[in-house]
């Protein structure tokens, strides 16, 4: 290759030289003319004249000699050597003469074309071909990489790879070649023919076929399951309806109805927002119902029942009320429904506006009666608390607590009831104890037994009131919304506080316990809440108890946290958790410190070494037989003399190898016999001795494994079927599409001819 | 007073029919079955010993040829049919189940150099020293008909090998050059050359069927692409390669049987380093054939033995020899991967089990389970010295045994010398060449 290039360049150089020669001569002659003096010129002229006398030949020879004079034999003179011949210079004299137009054109054409590169030699071309072909082929082959890798790593390979599907000949085909021969067979066939049963093709009656086609087994199964489910659901629904129907309470039914109406209204509201057209239709329906109501005499105290009631109305208040109710209902039903608009919202007033300022989530929680999110709930309470603080800073703690307790009760009234009941029980037990040791009570010294029993009663009353109040407040919440109930809620608070204020120190302790329990039960949510709840009472009772103080601080902290961070509604739960996590971390660190405080590795090691040395020392052998030659029995020891006599002292062993090595324990108990069976070097695929040990230690036999596990553990890596030919892997086997063109067609289409352009391209590729 | 009685439900211990298996309640509490490792170790040891006891690989010898067997071919559709060509130009077709020759053809004058079957199994091709390529029908001639080839192609030069395409009616011959033939034509569709030397064997890739590999007597292995009609690459090894064989499960892997007693497994995309050098033979390796599972291959050697190598191991797992078997010239692994056939100089074709201690015939499920368990135990404890020693133990003929010792000494001496050279020269001036790279002289693009 390099040789070739060299040759090429040489050739080019020589061409250039030829071209350069010409103008040089010309230039040289000119400069000669200018440079020399007149005498010289004259002399030249003379020479020319003389030479012209002889003829053409003579003159030419003179020219040649001249050139050889100027251009030295060894190197071209440096004059004008840097300049390159440009075609334009040569053409300049031609410009004037129009007769040379064709030549000019040709020359121009030559100028526009580039010089053609020398073709590569054959070997080079072939080499390039090979390289390109090889790259192509290896690319084709690399598609097999994942499959090869997969097969190499496969737990199990089953050969032959392609699954031969057993070909089942349809029974029609089998039957077509078969004929009834025996009389019995013929009889049967006759019967079949009589019954128009198809014998060979299609074997099934059209009806059967249709039924077969209609539904596959899976479909049928699915369908059945669906039907079953539907039936079950229906039965549940029916049972529920029956149960509900059985309920006699009018109140309940009223509530249900109300709920339904509310729900309908809500749905309508939603519909109004989501799909105004549908809402309009709904509205029309309502309107129509109103019209119907207006037309009918249903609720107009004109029915049979109404008339009978009207008679009674004079004397019976209830009857009168019932009639009133009916009328009210009529009024309600015939009242025109007002489409909620902006004007309505504007009418809401200052309270409403305030509410609107609060984020939507809060509103939702307050509206939502049956299942508020505890997180949202807390945030909402804090918000309202803020509002309350703005209104009346003095009243701050109480409403918060009440609201909280209430909301908690609302959330899980059962829990609340439970706690109340438990509280009650505990108090009773405490009461009993206090009765036993009366002197423990500081405040109750002047009180008698009667008073104590009275107290129990009062407490009971208080508890029941609490319960009732909770229920009430729940109902209130259900019925009303917003800030209105706050006022109502404040009322029962003093009543509730009274019995708590009367409590003694012991009781407080029990309360603490209770609180702990509570904390345990409902961790994050109820703890601050409850603490808030207790915080009002505890300081009232014991302002000087140090423990309580501590708790109070903590609680205040939490409260601060709540108040400060309640501005952002979302991120309320996060900081408390973080705090807890921090605490946990600190605790853990301390625990670890404590755990490893007494750890002395060096001492342990020394102890170990001492033990190893002790164990390796040869032991004395005691051959005394108790009772031999003297009395024996329980509690009797062989005499010291005898023991001394029969004790065989072990000889002192050789010194330990690690005697003088303080940091080493050398195990001298290597069993040579066992070592012969042991693996000395870690075998290849394992990277750690523990890995290897583990594989050895897991048994694979049926003695230690269940049948299934045994089979799984002992499956061979390669399974071949006897008598089956295993064919080479095919692209189709592994999901690849094999090349559609056959190899032979490709060859015939690719005759071994390569155009020069193709070659050039190839060369370019190879250069890249 | 209540009397306590033993009461058992017969459902728990009575079989429904007498054909049911007896239920054996088992308690798998490990405390009840101690010493699992030692017990399994003993089982493994016993399994290994039994394996050696039952290792009787030789099945049959097919005799009938009147000269050394030069080439073998499998029937692509029939497991029981085998074709063989001898050095006297005779081709025989054998039935392995009957262990009989079912047909004899005097195919060529001089050696039958190569034999291959068509992918459909209806005909086969032979090439001989008489410069001809002949196509024969697989079925014998009818009564009264003469034994004649379907086609005969008379070439200009001697053909030394032949192989048929795996899917199409194309075959390749080698000699002076690699020729690709259409079955219907008397001239090759294309001829591929790279340098001038006699090519001893050519093989089609069974997966990517347009690929060919050949090995020539100027020590090189050349790969060709049939579709692009060019050679692809050439690798020159230390010594001549006798034949190559492609892995039937891994498209780019092939193994070359070399004169320097070794086999080289190459990835054809990276020819500069063989994937594995398989060394155990003590004389030139003459033939190699892959198991159809692609996990092992068998090699035939001039040292009168055949060896089975796992593809990822450099040492053989098995060596077969008999007293009467001379230089083994050709070897084939049957397409159900259960048997191995080898043809040797002393005119016999021998049939071996691929797995020496395998029990032939149908196994009961218990036998199968026991076999699998034993196999797994052997694998599990294969690194333990006693088991390793027993599993590796083979009786070898004295010639091979002494050769191995000699080889070992020579190799050790060479290694020592190399080490000394490295030790006593300037660090870095004597490069350390790995065993894999040592044998590759050059890769020519």
Automatic annotation (TrEMBL), chain B:
Localization in the cell: Nucleus, Nucleolus
Pathway(s) this gene product operates in, as recorded in its UniProt entry: Protein modification; protein ubiquitination
WD repeat locations: 62-104, 278-319, 321-362
Protein biosynthesis as UniProt keyword: no
Pfam family, one: Sof1
InterPro entries: Sof1, WD40/YVTN_repeat-like_dom_sf, WD40_repeat_CS, WD40_repeat_dom_sf, WD40_rpt, WD_repeat_DCAF13/WDSOF1
GO cellular component: cell junction; centrosome; Cul4-RING E3 ubiquitin ligase complex; cytosol; nucleoplasm; small-subunit processome
GO molecular function, one term: ubiquitin-like ligase-substrate adaptor activity
Gene Ontology biological process terms in this record: decidualization; epigenetic programming in the zygotic pronuclei; maturation of SSU-rRNA from tricistronic rRNA transcript (SSU-rRNA, 5.8S rRNA, LSU-rRNA); negative regulation of phosphatidylinositol 3-kinase/protein kinase B signal transduction; oocyte growth; proteasome-mediated ubiquitin-dependent protein catabolic process; protein ubiquitination; spindle assembly involved in female meiosis
PROSITE patterns per record: WD_REPEATS_1, WD_REPEATS_2, WD_REPEATS_REGION
Keyword Transport: no
Signal sequence segment: none
Subunit structure, interactors included: Part of the small subunit (SSU) processome, composed of more than 70 proteins and the RNA chaperone small nucleolar RNA (snoRNA) U3. Component of the DCX(DCAF13) E3 ubiquitin ligase complex, at least composed of CUL4 (CUL4A or CUL4B), DDB1, DCAF13 and RBX1. Interacts (via WD40 domain) with DDB1. Interacts with ESR1 and LATS1.
Protein function: Part of the small subunit (SSU) processome, first precursor of the small eukaryotic ribosomal subunit. During the assembly of the SSU processome in the nucleolus, many ribosome biogenesis factors, an RNA chaperone and ribosomal proteins associate with the nascent pre-rRNA and work in concert to generate RNA folding, modifications, rearrangements and cleavage as well as targeted degradation of pre-ribosomal RNA by the RNA exosome. Participates in the 18S rRNA processing in growing oocytes, being essential for oocyte nonsurrounded nucleolus (NSN) to surrounded nucleolus (SN) transition.
PANTHER family listed in its UniProt record: DDB1- AND CUL4-ASSOCIATED FACTOR 13, U3 SMALL NUCLEOLAR RNA U3 SNORNA ASSOCIATED PROTEIN
Protein family membership: Belongs to the WD repeat DCAF13/WDSOF1 family.
Protein name as catalogued: DDB1- and CUL4-associated factor 13
Organism encoding this protein: Callithrix jacchus (White-tufted-ear marmoset)
Protein's gene: DCAF13
